[in-house]
Amino acid sequence: xxxxxxxxxxxxxxxxxxxxxxxxxxxxxxxxxxxxxxxxxxxxxxxxxxxxxxxxxxxxxxxxxxxxxxxxxxxxxxxxxxxxxxxxxxxxxxxxxxxxxxxxxxxxxxxxxxxxxxxxxxxxxxxxxxxxxxxxxxxxxxxxxxxxxxxxxxxxxxxxxxxxxxxxxxxxxxxxxxxxxxxxxxxxxxxxxxxxxxxxxxxxxxxxxxxxxxxxxxxxxxxx
Amino acid sequence: xxxxxxxxxxxxxxxxxxxxxxxxxxxxxxxxxxxxxxxxxxxxxxxxxxxxxxxxxxxxxxxxxxxxxxxxxxxxxxxxxxxxxxxxxxxxxxxxxxxxxxxxxxxxxxxxxxxxxxxxxxxxxxxxxxxxxxxxxxxxxxxxxxxxxxxxxxxxxxxxxxxxxxxxxxxxxxxxxxxxxxxxxxxxxxxxxxxxxxxxxxxxxxxxxxxxxxxxxxxxxxxxxxxxxxxxxxxxxxxxxxxxxxxxxxxxxxxxxxxxxxxxxxxxxxxxxxxxxxxxxxxxxxxxxxxxxxxxxxxxxxxxxxxxxxxxxxxxxxxxxxxxxxxxxxxxxxxxxxxxxxxxxxxxxxxxxxxxxxxxxxxxxxxxxxxxxxxxxxxxxxxxxxxxxxxxxxxxxxxxxxxxxxxxxxxxxxxxxxxxxxxxxxxxxxxxxxxxxxxxxxxxxxxxxxxxxxxxxxxxxxxx
Lengths: 224, 464
Hints:
The structure holds two protein chains of two kinds. By secondary structure, chain A is of the alpha/beta class. Chain A has eight helices and twelve strands. In chain A, a hairpin with a 2-residue loop joins strand 8 and strand 9. The longest helix of chain A has 15 residues. Chain A is elongated. By secondary structure, chain B is α+β, with helices and mostly antiparallel strands. Helix content of chain B is about 55%, strand content about 15%. At the A-B interface, helix 1 and helix 8 of A face helix 5, helix 6, helix 7 and helix 8 of B.
């Protein structure tokens, strides 16, 4: 998987590039819009991270050019503009997702995975599992070591989200967006309370804990 | 708004202008008629007087020449010529005895005392005897050289007939005149206030939609009112550029703070992944959490500033307030269950208001978050929504610790935290944000509470 990162702030660019490399991606990085266009024209990328405020040619213009040329690479827009207007403008220009600075790297990573999954039309599995935990997406039955676990719909949705991103931390913002369709942070500990409840049902009676808290980031599901 | 529709109609400038116009128009017509009436009446009177005076002089001349007999003959002679209206002639002696009297057929009875000679008789003396509405007479008298008094009179009913017709015509003409005045006034007022109405419509459109690009349509004429519209447009241009400038400045501040925050957070997060030292990891995690806290504060402060300065872009659309409240309650259900707080709703059917759904959800979320935060386990929160008088009222009532009367005015201040709220998470910005967003929607928010007896926050929003 090859990703192009277009970001003119060298500090931000370096931690994105390093983080993506650590997660097994091949990464190219450029710092202005013109270079970005020439890279898109010469290399086939699986996804791109595109800053909006760029020297020479801004991110939205780069995106418009690409889409006019029917170049359909999934693009995650990265911007310091947080308003709804800017988000809408970014998505209308042809962006596939929009992330505002500052952001958690885990969130960037999870979103890139989601974009690639969507673009490659990965077949939807009907069951997801991690270790001795299995959930059936159709019958909505959850079992761990053969024991059935009863979950409420929100708890099930959170577990499904974690299982779809095994080993990748999921941020509170993503959970709010995914489970309650909230695009802003309502300043609440709802996510913590829900995660706490889920862990009580999934992990409490088992020696091996699956759901872990990562301070400053969110939650991750990994066996051991 | 007014309970009296007639009164509120009168308050409209256009209506008042057209009424003034109609009044002035009618008054001028009345004055014109009055003047004509007066001129006509005096012309008729002068004519009558001329005729009578000529006759009087003729009689006096006859009397001078031939005495009473000659006058008798003169009077009799002219009576036989069958004139349609003949004259009344009387000669009275010094002592008041009647020496000669000729009364025409259309003459009437009158009190002879009224004709008693007296006063200064060196000049002509005029006397008018109105008999009734239809008939009247005018008599002129003069002292003859032999000190007897000659009186000559004539029926002047003619004058009254003409004037009567004139008066009737006046009444007949006045009704259409009044109507014309009102119609003309309405048309005139409508045309005159056209630019004012356009200015009002433009101002209203800007306030309703928040779209500052609306302008009063330009005209080619150059009246004072068109000038008003032009100057109003200039003020709007100025405002728009100021607001755009303010928006850009706020945007830049946010952007300039977000970028270093992104560097800080990203670097710390990356380092956290790589380091194995537990203490260092904890320190980095603190950094990340604190940077998130700073971001939250920045976002809230920017939102409050934008809402208070009128720069916040509200995407207002008719929204079901019930549905908004339901989605917020759904979000907090987990917390309510955790604290065993019952959340009950009391919704009136179809409470709709023109609001920015995202922002209003933020308002309700903040209020419900507070209600749940300050209500002890096992308490109750009631959310109600009702419409009254074109406004939607949302009330969130809890059974929590309440707010003392002394604290109530302070809770809306930025960063204010009551003694008992310091132990809870939060920044002290939630209620400031609630107030700023609600007021940006032309709404109001108020609190009703007593220390230890729960609190009720009410948000009142205009429906349109």
